[in-house]
Amino acid sequence: MKRREFLQISGGTLAGAAFASGFTTKWWGLDGDPIPNPGTDGTIVPSFCELCFWKCGIHAHVKDGKVTKIVGNPDHPLSRGKLCPRGTGGIGLLYDPDRLKKPLLRKEVGGKQRFEEVSWDEALDFIADKMKTIKKKYGPESLALFSHGFGGSWMKKVVKAYGSQNIGAPSWAQCKGPRDVGFELTFGDFLGSPEPIDMRNAKCITLIGAHLGENMHNTQVQDFAEAIGNGADIIVVDPRFSTAAGKAKHWLPIKPGTDIALLLAWMHVLIKEGLYDQEYIKKYATGLDKLKKYLEDKTPEWAFTQTGIEPEKIVASARTLAAARPRSIVHPGRHVTWYGNDTQRSRAIAMLNALLGSWGRIGGYYFKDKIKLAPFPGSMYKFPKSTKPIADRKKGAIYPFGGESLAHGFRDATFPGYADYDIKAWIVYGTNLMQCLPDPEKTKEAIKHLDLLVAIDVLPAEITGYADVVLPECTYLERHDDLWSAAYTEPFVAMRQPAVKPMYDSKPGWWIAKELAKRLGYEGLFPWKDPEEYLRGRAEASHLSWKELKSKGVIAKKKREAQTIDEGLEPSFDTPTGKIELFSKQLQESGLDPIPVHRPPDEPPPGYFRLLYGRYPVHTFGRTTNNRFLSEIFPENEVWLNARMAKELGLQSGDRVMVENQDGRKSGPIRVKVTQRIRPDCVYMVHGFGHKDKRLRFARGRGASDSDLISKSAIDPIIGSTGMNVNFVRLEVAS
Predict the structure, then answer these.
(1) Rg for the chain (alpha carbons), in Å?
(2) Can you give the pLDDT at residue 16?
(3) Residue ranges of the chain assigned to CATH 3.40.50.740
(4) What's this model's pTM, rounded to 2 decimal places?
(5) Residues of the chain with CATH 2.40.40.20
(6) 145, 444, 668, 677: which is deepest, by most CB within 10 A?
(7) Which residues lie closer than 8 Å to 112 by C-beta, 6 or more apart?
(8) Positive or negative CA dihedral for 590, 596, 599, 601?
């Protein structure tokens, strides 16, 4: 076959009624019949959500074989009977008319490539044959799996059985990796998800670029609201006046890229004024003397020259932080890949929490607990061991605390000679690499070097247009997935189970993986006939009631008597010194800064703004922008522009502009939002819009894609993650 072209599914392959490009309040089911008005009668199926990856417990209400509404499961610790707007909008995904409906195979007819609908047997036989050929020609390590979403666990087993360790998720190097490593270097423990934060009992909550209220992690938003109701002080550090900033005692509109300078100045004030938790630090920490010496010249006056925040505001906010200790949380954030110094910034946040004495304290960070799950009885499959290193970094590149695999590294290893060997095949599960990896043009170029690309998804995201085979997975409301055991204040095991049967010819991930494994000869990989047998076997082997798990959707263990130092639990720190490390010899011995160092960020070229991006409460990035239900509230993104700069450019709210970055990449048109709520040197966009694929008939052409403008990234030397707030843009009126 000649070089792979981007393909769009023809009209003949799109089953179901077409929707107009505008809003709709009419929801359509399998036969095109309107969904009944939401009601509480009929069957209630407990499960957990996947409109984002917080995985809240849900109750799906089913009537006449159709889901009529989704509400929070009151028995589930993460939802507590409530859901965010996205969670309630799951019906919009289930009944999205643009869903992938049948397997698709790229074929060449008359010299032209096109997708043709095929049977599952033909699609899986094709994949298995190609995988066998690739393994024989290049070795099993030449296959990489990009996986995002809980259901990817099944395909991970297949790839491991194939013999490849090249398994990664963009959620690590493009999202949360730096904060996990920064905290682990300091406390010897990573944060995980959900984070072990006792916000509801906090007296002060500090958010540094964390947009609670816009980033709708349900439990934390509930806790945040409760803390505010109890009179907690809020400090928000953000170039933009976010939703959370509207609740803040201190809003510090920091110059982007200077957060470490502010954190060092705060620590300077705490130590100089004796406001830190001296007893806690003396007992549990090491390196204070070196930190004190280092901070001597990191004064609020010095920080002002870097951050633009007045010294008196730095001092006042530091005193607010300290007045609430140890019930003073500096939130670690979630999406923290900004400037390439992200692990050091996260480490500075961890060190500040240590000075406040909040690690292991009520109203701070508690020590996690977890229910241990047993494997399925009789699981004896032995995965082959690879003799080659993971191909996620350039030859000779060393990221000494890399942790998980780098998804962008697998992309780059597809270019010949980049890594120790070449990646020749991708399986992409539930992630649109065109929007979540930096530099989508580079991703397109990498795809040209592949012998096989398999995309498994619910919707026709742009990545599916480049695939050789597209496999339609059913939604989380139509399938079982593995049991989920979460480390939390109330440790729990949750179960996902189908509320309705799979629509069209879509299949659950477990079935796809099991059938592919059979064709590859891995018969013993899934030694059970169906997922209920598997889930029941794991539950009973773990001494959990299958009846309770199935009927409630969750089994929660009572909070243990002591989860904090205040309750009598003596902490341990899995660091080389066995203590909290304010000075890291691990980093020093690796040739890295043992204490975070502020280095001024690059300045925008004349006429350009720094591009910032984030979320909106009803959307999970690009995952939900085709959801007609949620889009009735927020149908497209805008570009936020400071009012003074808008006046200089002659722009008004509602004007449509094109956005162009420093490398000439363009996106748009997009409406301008003129506001005082952002610094003059920045613009801001909600991520996940600007889809180009015609198969996404609602989302296509709405707003602009910030991903198209992220052609540059700064690599974190500690873990190899990609800082993506290093792009600059200018605006021009759309023609």
Answers:
(1) 25
(2) 38
(3) 104-172+373-492+506-556
(4) 0.95
(5) 609-733
(6) 145
(7) none
(8) positive
Sorted by sequence, the CB contacts under 8 Å of residue 268 that are 6+ apart come out as 295, 296, 298, 299, 300
Q: Is 671 left (phi over 0), alpha (psi -120 to 50) or beta?
A: beta
457, 146 Cβ separation under 8 angstroms:
no
CA–CA separation, 406 vs 724, rounded Å? Answer: 15
Which one, of 154, 104, 101, lies nearest residue 127 by Cα?
104
- Calculate ∠ Cα 12-16-19, nearest 5°: 100
Q: Specify the DSSP element, H or E, that contains 492.
A: strand 492-494
Name the strands in the sheet holding 469-472, side by side, starting at the edge strand that comes first in the sequence: 112-117, 104-109, 469-472, 452-457, 425-429, 143-147, 167-168
- How far, in Å, CA of 358 to CA of 500, rounded? 45
* Dihedral sign, Cα of residue 396, residue 399, residue 402, residue 408: negative
Name the residue type at position 472. Answer: P
Fold of 609-733: Barwin-like endoglucanases (2.40.40)
Q: Bridge-partner residues for 732, per DSSP?
A: 658
Per-residue confidence (pLDDT) for residue 36, from 0 to 100: 44
Cα(210)–Cα(206) distance, rounded to whole angstroms? 9
- Residue listed under structure tokens 């047998």: 533
Which residues of the chain are in CATH 3.40.228.10 domains?
174-368+569-589
Q: Which residue has the tokens 């938790």?
A: 277
User: Around Cβ 528, how many Cβ atoms within 10 Å?
Assistant: 18
Which range, of 36-45, 281-290, 378-387, 685-694, averages the lowest pLDDT?
36-45
φ/ψ region of 271 (left if φ > 0, alpha if ψ in -120 to 50, else beta) reads: alpha
pLDDT bin (cut points 50, 70, 90) of residue 31 is: very low
Q: What fold is seen in the domain 104-172+373-492+506-556? A: Rossmann fold (3.40.50)
Measuring CA to CA, which residue among 691, 709, 710 is closest to residue 701? 691
Distance CA 319, CA 388 (A): 52
Judge contact between 552 and 58, C-beta under 8 A.
Answer: no
| CA distance linking residue 334 with residue 357, whole number of Å | 22
Strand 250-252 and strand 484-486: the pairing is: unpaired
- What pLDDT, in 10s, does the model give residues 105-134? 999 988 899 999 999 999 999 999 999 999
Q: Which is the CATH superfamily of the domain at 174-368+569-589?
A: Dimethylsulfoxide Reductase, domain 2 (3.40.228.10)
User: What single-letter amino acid sits at 295?
Assistant: L
pLDDT per position as a tens digit, 633-655 = 999 999 999 999 999 999 999 99
Structure tokens of 304? 């002002």
C-alpha–C-alpha distance, residues 149 and 457, integer Å: 11
Residue where the block lists tokens 């992690």: 217
Contact between 207 and 611 under an 8 Å Cβ cutoff? The reply is no
pLDDT tens digit string along 489-516? 999 999 999 999 999 999 999 999 999 9
Within 13 A of 158's CA, how many CA atoms are on the CB side? Answer: 29
Going by pLDDT thresholds of 50, 70 and 90, the confidence category of residue 479 is very high
User: How far apart are the C-alpha atoms of 503 and 399, rounded to whole Å?
Assistant: 44
Residue 463 in tokens: 């990545």
How do residues 675-715 score in pLDDT, each as one tens digit?
999 999 999 999 999 999 999 999 999 999 999 999 999 99
Nearest alpha-carbon partner for 59 in 469, 495, 451, 375: 495
Specify the pLDDT at position 621.
81
Per the DSSP assignment, residues forming a β-bridge with 580 are 285
DSSP string covering 41-88: -SEEEEEE--SSTT--EEEEEEETTEEEEEEE-TT-TTTTT---HHHH
Q: How far apart are CA 553 and CA 494, in angstroms?
A: 6
Q: Is the dihedral of CA 523, 527, 533, 538 positive or negative?
A: negative
